[in-house]
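In this supplementary section we document a worked example of the pipeline. Step one takes a protein sequence of length 91 as its only input; no multiple sequence alignment statistics are reported here. Step two produces a three-dimensional model, which step three serialises into structure tokens for compact storage. The input and output of this example are shown verbatim.
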Amino acid sequence: MSRAAKVTLAASLVVSATTVWAVHYMQIQEREVMHKGVERDAARQADKKRQRALDLELNKEKEKQFQQIQPTKGWLSGRGKSQDSDQIPER
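The serialised model returned by step three reads:
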């Protein structure tokens, strides 16, 4: 094999190996970035869930206070469901 052929073969091998390594490295980086996105989404969902639970508790407390001031028929008979709502209206 001539010297030019050997240099060309070596250069081809170096370029190919570098390309494979670079693609592999980029895939690893992208996977890490995507996983961080999943972690952020999970944290955001947990925060939303905590906030909704807190809002629910606050609303329950407000409802108790309002019902003490002015009770409603539905609240007394079963937390917002009136007894008449179970009956089918006649036509």
